[in-house]
Amino acid sequence: MISKKVILTGSFGVGKTSLFNQFIYQQFSDKYLTTIGVKVNKKTITVEGEEISLLLWDIAGEIAQNKVPESYFLGAGGIVYVVDLSRVATLTNMQTDVAFLKEILPSGRLMVVANKKDLITQEQLAQLAIQYKHPWDITTSAKTGENVEALFIELGKRLLTPL
Q1: How many CB atoms lie within 10 A of CB 15?
Q2: 90: helix, strand or coil
Q3: Nearest residue to 81 via CA among 16, 36, 1, 158
Q4: Nearest to 110 by CA among 143, 142, 83
Q5: Which of 119, 111, 148 is nearest to 27 (CA)?
Q6: Whole-model pTM?
Q7: How far apart are CA 138 and CA 113, in angstroms?
């Protein structure tokens, strides 16, 4: 079995912990609780007949403000960078944050996730995709569970693919 460390990061309130909880426990809570430090758990998935143990790190902090210690990223094979489709402000720092993440973890597999799809219309989603040149890899809803499993399966495929 392969084991890979995966970091969930992004601005505060984008739904990192909700994605984490939906994926690990199939649970969602409307209560907003700020993550302090890092929350770690693991889940094994099967991708193309290969078992992958994902060690998920749900980290607190704003990347652009350097509140996340770079040491959290050491040894990570993948990064899930989350933005909130209902808060356009989280999309504005995306390019800078993604460039920074690629710099500190050049061999890591990065997926940009547009979360909270349930809070906007298809038309709004299409407008955001045009406005921001469709910068995300997948849209999800931690609340409904839409595409949450698909996100981690796709990441698993990328983790199995040689550079």
Answers
A1: 26
A2: helix
A3: 16
A4: 83
A5: 148
A6: 0.92
A7: 5
Lookup result for tokens 């993550």: 35
Q: 35 forms bridges with which residues in the sheet?
A: none
CB 79 within 8 A of CB 101: yes
The rounded distance, in Å, linking the Cα atoms of 151 and 113 is: 8
How buried is 10 (Cβ within 10 angstroms: 0-12 exposed, 13-18 middle, 19+ buried)? Answer: buried
pLDDT at 36: 65
Residue 152 has pLDDT above 60, yes or no: yes
Enumerate residues 6+ apart whose C-beta is below 8 A from 123.
none
Beta strands in the chain (DSSP E): 2-10, 38-47, 50-59, 76-84, 109-115, 138-139
Quickly state the pLDDT bin for 29 (edges 50, 70, 90).
confident
| Mean pLDDT confidence for 65-78 | 79
Q: Which residue has the tokens 């990570």?
A: 76
Selection from 149, 44, 64, 103 nearest residue 138 by Cα? 149
Amino acid at 149: E
